[in-house]
Design a protein that fits this description.
Elements (H helix, E strand, L loop, with lengths): L1 E7 L3 H6 L2 H8 L3 E5 L5 H4 L5 E2 L2 E6 L9 E5 L5 E4 L12 E5 L7 E7 L7 H22 L3 E7 L23 H12 L4 E2 H5 L10 E2 L11 E2 L2 E5 L1 H4 L2 E6 L11 E5 L4
Parallel strand pairs: 1-2, 8-9
Antiparallel strand pairs: 1-15, 2-5, 3-4, 4-5, 6-7, 7-8, 9-13, 10-13, 11-12, 14-15
């Protein structure tokens, strides 16, 4: 069995100060994808390369205190690939891929942090550029290897994926264009939304992010914007899912799925 966790940290220093390492030690994932490091390589060195026995690999943003992604793993990757576009979004530290290739199998785990467009029209346009650029990259990967993408996608796909869907139809994260991107990735792109495969029903237990405004957490006014997106063969091996809500390391909850395979 292989336990894979995804978590937007909203700052690796802040999350670790809240007991992240102890939680990882207790939950014992085989691999953990993290997003929004808000740290540079110099901040990570000597402090965060290892977490509860897991070795970390990172892709940091050029801008200090911004974005960045990483993957902690028990298994040595055959290759580490940082970035995907060689430009705007690589500078923001949006994507890292670990490959676990053997003579008989090509496998990848990706940690990806999709841009948020909620702060301004400019950032929403950047989000649309990211979606346009990332889609062909992702689908090419799907055509050549088994993969699981873990990450903060910053998109709630369906009405059942957020509490107040009616009032959010014109807001970033639930725009028709964003939802259409997700539908296309699932229908044509060769990917499976693993959580929805295991739990197709509508439930308030599915949310993974809560705004810091108002009483969103207290009232469970949440969004499901963190995902495991997998190629079908890997998705079929998913056995159980857990969204951790008994501890809070950030405004996101850890999303863990256990798969019936080994690297």
């Amino acid at each position: 069995m292989f336990k894979l966790t995804s978590l937007n940290l909203n700052g690796i220093r802040a999350a670790t100060s809240k007991g992240l390492a102890d939680w990882v030690q207790a939950k014992a994932p085989d691999c953990m994808c993290v997003q929004e490091l808000k740290a540079q390589a110099s901040d990570i060195a000597g402090r965060f390369e290892n977490l509860a026995g897991l070795q970390g690999y990172f892709h940091c943003a050029e801008k200090k205190g911004y974005s960045g992604v990483g993957i902690y793993t028990r298994h040595d990757p055959s290759e580490v690939i940082t970035g995907f576009d060689g430009g705007e979004f690589d500078a923001e530290g949006r994507c890292i891929e670990l490959r676990f290739d053997t003579l008989t199998a090509k496998r990848s785990i990706l940690s990806v942090y999709f841009p948020s467009g909620s702060s301004s029209e400019e950032r929403q346009e950047a989000k649309f550029r990211f979606l346009e650029a990332f889609y062909p990259y992702l689908t090419r990967l799907c055509g050549t290897r088994e993969l699981i993408l873990c990450g903060d996608v910053n998109i709630a796909h369906q009405a059942i994926d957020l509490k107040n869907w009616k009032s959010n139809q014109k807001n970033s994260g639930f725009l028709p264009e964003e939802r259409a991107w997700m539908s296309r990735a699932l229908a044509e792109g060769g990917l499976v939304d693993v959580y929805r495969q295991l739990h197709p029903e509508a439930t308030a237990d599915s949310y993974t992010w809560w705004s810091n405004r108002g009483q969103a957490w207290a009232n469970n006014v949440g969004w499901r914007i963190d995902y495991h997106l997998a190629t079908p063969a890997w998705a079929r091996t998913a056995r159980r899912v857990e969204i951790e809500k008994t501890v809070r390391f950030s405004d996101h909850a850890p999303l863990s799925i256990t798969y019936d395979f080994v690297l």
